[in-house]
Amino acid sequence: MPVRLRVVSDRDPNAIRTFSPLPGVPFVVGRDDNADCVLEEDPKVSRRHCQIEKGSGGWAVRDLGSTNGIRVNGIAYGGKNGKREADGSVPVVPLKPGDSVAVGGSTIFLIDPTLHDTTPDETSSRPVTGSDPGLKPLDHFYAAC
Asked: Which whole-number Å values give the CA distances from 126 to 5, 28, 69, 84, 86, in the listed order?
């Protein structure tokens, strides 16, 4: 199932960015310029903070060893105090449409485009702009995401 990732800044809830990750291709969120979603002005975000990917079991998110971890539907994973496996590793957390992933001061929502009128003409891992008439221009949103 194709999905959209809608990224909303806690500092400006009207600043929204939408992405269409490709199945089987890791979608990295972080401050690094090479991340697919760059959150460069957020001090709580690591350079390579987390990765969202569709594997054989469906969509999932994994913290990439960030300092502050992630929160999936309010549950902390990774970071200093988040859930870990018995061996100390950070678990891969399954995602379904409607789930939220908090990364620093932003929240990523997994959206099923068949239930929402936000589907662009083509699927890519690059930002989708103008796909939702209610979205504002993104110039003021962290400069990249």
From this structure: 11, 12, 24, 31, 36
